[in-house]
Specification:
Residues 103-107 have low confidence and may be disordered. The chain has one domain (2-169). The longest helix has 26 residues, at 144-169. Helix 4 crosses helix 5 (108-129) and helix 4 (78-98) runs parallel beside helix 7. It is built from seven helices and no strands. The radius of gyration is 16 Å and the shape is globular. The chain has helices spanning 2-9, 21-38, 43-64, 78-98, 108-129, 134-140, 144-169. It starts with a helix and ends with a helix. By secondary structure, the protein is an all-alpha fold.
Length: 170
């Protein structure tokens, strides 16, 4: 079970890639959501998977943290997946329900790239710079919950920025 947990929290080895594993995990997350959006995967399935990961990841991190050198190791990137998923889920919901891109005359993949790119840049901005209250969560909560929660807050901020920017663009 520990091996499965390690695969999950490192996103099947993405966290072990060396340079910028968090950025790579965020980019992979956006690409996955982009393709799931274009493939018209049901939003409720995406939400269920998201909430399962959100609930169980802190516990899996706590059970495996001893395998790493510090309390928030760069190899653990499930938190980036969860945080980046928040603006991506918002995009999937917003585009499906409101059809924001319905008037753009290009294939669904091309017209969907911009929102996911905005979500990626927004999330990385908040995840890397860690403005208040993200920085307080990162400094004060030193367990699996803290590892995930600071990225959840960064994801919420990124979703808000993504929503505002998309509202201006479309």
């Amino acid at each position: 079970m520990n091996k499965i947990g390690l695969y999950l929290i490192t996103l099947f080895g993405i966290g072990n890639l060396g340079k910028m594993p968090g950025t790579i995990a965020s980019l992979v997350t956006c690409i996955l959501f982009l393709f799931m959006f274009v493939a018209e995967i049901n939003i409720y399935i995406l939400l269920i998977v998201f909430f399962i990961l959100l609930v169980f990841s802190p516990n899996i991190i706590d059970k495996n943290i001893h395998q790493f050198k510090n309390l928030d190791p760069k190899e653990i990137v499930i938190d980036e997946f969860i945080g980046q998923s928040i603006p991506c889920l918002w995009i999937c919901y917003k585009l499906k329900v409101y059809g924001m891109l319905g008037t753009v005359a290009s294939p669904p993949l091309l017209q969907s790239i911009i929102p996911f790119l905005i979500a990626f840049v927004s999330f990385r901005f908040f995840d890397i710079l860690k403005p208040f209250p993200i920085n307080m969560i990162d400094k004060k909560i030193k367990n699996g919950f803290g590892v995930v929660f600071d990225d959840v807050v960064a994801g919420v901020f990124a979703a808000i920025i993504t929503h505002l920017l998309l509202s201006l663009i479309y």
